[in-house]
Specification:
This protein has helices at residues 34-43, 60-70, 85-95, 116-125, 172-182, 193-200, 221-233, 260-271, 291-305, 328-356, 376-396, 414-420, 431-442, and strands spanning 5-11, 28-29, 32-33, 50-55, 75-80, 103-108, 131-137, 144-145, 152-154, 162-171, 206-210, 236-237, 251-255, 275-279, 310-313, 359-363, 402-408, 411-412, 429-430, 450-453. With 458 residues, it is of the alpha/beta class. It has a seven-stranded mixed β-sheet with strand order 5-4-1-6-10-7-11, with helices on both faces. A seven-stranded parallel β-sheet has the order 12-20-17-16-15-13-14, with helices on both faces. A two-stranded antiparallel ribbon has the order 2-3. Strand 18, helix 12 (414-420) and strand 19 form a beta-alpha-beta unit. Helix 9 (291-305) packs parallel to helix 10 (328-356). The longest helix is centred in the C-terminal third of the chain and has 29 residues, at 328-356. The two termini are 40 Å apart.
């Protein structure tokens, strides 16, 4: 059998420390249970071949229903774990005893904010090492105390200290051998698989992949508040292996397609064979603040093509000036376009995207995370885009509609030039790069995501 990357989701906890009243993995945040968010990360990752979920036998039925409801294509095993964490690890190790060369990637079910970057780093490291840990630098001073916990014995050098996270990954043969030796030790105790390898296979080097502070573990009730906020601000990046050929024959409606990012989306989609329709105030007289106008545009496409696969809204207005000096008509136009227009497009797109199981794609900006002086209306409407997307992604998931948001860095567009003038070369994204990322998002299976588009550093 070929070597495979198998994710092991450890979900055997019963929630004794959390104070949540339920096992932590079943706590809901951002519209889904924590474990659903976690499994989604692996199910959507291109380098993961299979997933096994290890759970307490009391919750086997709940996990089975979850797999069916979410249509996780990569979940192939649901295993009963044990009282101790290492017993759950052993259940997975034994379940794949016939694949000694495959990589088992163990991850806590209650770390739902794992990024694709960390998974990519683990898979790359597995080409050179048989055991991988994930860790972040220790930022606080760590002290070692005496047996009574009262007096400092030593203060280790913080430069060499790390805080361990998951995933932890191993060749099946390596982690299996480590536990085979460990279980013969009458003094064996373990809460960490890497610790077992380090102690019982001292010649096996354990490589450390950099973790992220956002890859936090839900342990106590207080953690749930931070987790909820991190989900609100969460973003990801587009994976590079998209096949643009799948755009051939798709029908795409772009509002704001006259210039900037919208125009590049139109141009590139057409190059890949998509049937693309562009609407804007300047070229077609379409004001998205008028719901009837939006409805007429979409009906025109549907009557001609018989379906609409993607709807993109890149239309927005930016006026950079203090709120109290802004012309009232200009202020109202900005709100009507940036917010009301987005809502109108979503409502009118729904029946078409439900039929096609398509996607609605919206745009925010880096200013959505924090309001800034001179951007009060623009920043607040862009924050609304993200919240709106997150709500719709949850509401429309059962209808097979995906909803996502692009979050490009500062991009050279006519709107930006009007507000900022000429800026140094290399400090702005070009609209074509954002369009490429937008098309990759359209053909992805993801929903409810904020996709960052960043300037590539040399």
């Amino acid at each position: 059998m070929m070597s495979r990357n198998i994710a092991i989701i450890l979900a055997g906890g019963v929630g004794s420390r959390s104070g949540l009243g339920i096992p932590k993995q079943f706590f809901k945040v951002a519209g889904k249970t924590v474990i659903e968010h976690t499994v989604n990360v692996f199910d959507n990752h291109r380098l993961i071949d299979e997933i096994a979920i290890v759970t307490n036998s009391l919750y086997m039925h709940e996990i089975e229903e979850m797999v069916l409801r979410n249509k996780w294509s990569k979940v192939k095993k649901i295993l009963s774990g044990g009282q101790e964490r290492y017993e759950s690890s052993l259940a997975a190790i034994n379940a794949y005893s016939n694949e000694p060369d495959s990589a088992l990637i163990f991850h806590d079910a209650v770390r739902p904010l794992l990024s694709n970057t960390i998974i990519d780093g683990i898979v790359e490291a597995l080409k050179s090492y048989n055991a991988i840990d994930v860790a972040v630098p220790a930022t606080d001073t760590i002290i070692q105390v005496d047996d009574k916990g009262e007096v400092i014995k030593s203060i280790p050098d913080r430069r060499f200290l790390r805080r361990g996270q998951t995933p932890q990954a191993f060749r099946q043969s390596v982690i299996s051998k480590a536990y085979e030796i460990a279980l013969k030790d009458p003094k064996f105790t373990s809460s960490d698989d890497c610790g077992t390898v380090v102690r019982y296979l001292p010649d096996e080097k354990v490589y450390v992949v950099p973790g992220e502070e956002s890859n936090m573990k839900l342990t106590y009730k207080e953690d749930s508040y931070l987790l909820d906020k991190l989900f609100q601000l969460r973003s990801t990046t587009v994976q590079d292996d998209a096949q643009f050929s799948s755009l051939n024959g798709k029908v795409l409606a772009v509002f704001g397609g006259n210039s900037g990012i919208g125009a590049e989306v139109v141009s590139k989609a057409m190059q890949h064979g998509a049937k693309t329709y562009s609407f804007s105030r300047s070229t077609t007289g379409t004001d998205i603040a008028d719901r009837g106008a939006v409805a007429a545009c979409l009906k025109e496409i549907y009557d001609k093509e018989g379906h609409i696969d993607y709807v993109v809204n890149s239309a927005a207005i930016l006026r950079r000036e203090p709120l109290v000096t802004m012309d009232p008509d200009a202020l109202n136009t900005m709100i009507r376009t940036n917010y009301d227009g987005m809502v109108n497009i979503a409502i009118e797109s729904f029946p078409y995207l439900k039929q096609s199981h398509g996607q609605l794609l919206l745009y925010t900006s880096s200013s959505y995370t924090r309001g800034r002086a001179l951007y009060s209306i623009y920043s607040s409407t862009k924050a609304a885009v993200v919240n709106f997307m997150q709500a719709l992604a949850q509401e429309w998931e059962q209808d097979g509609i995906r909803v996502n948001v692009m979050n490009p860095e500062r991009t050279k567009t006519p709107m930006r030039v009007r507000n900022f003038g000429n800026e140094p070369e290399g400090t702005l994204l070009d609209a074509a790069s954002v369009a490429d990322a937008s098309l990759k998002t359209l053909i992805s299976d993801l929903t409810g995501q904020v996709f960052d588009v960043r300037i590539k550093k040399d």
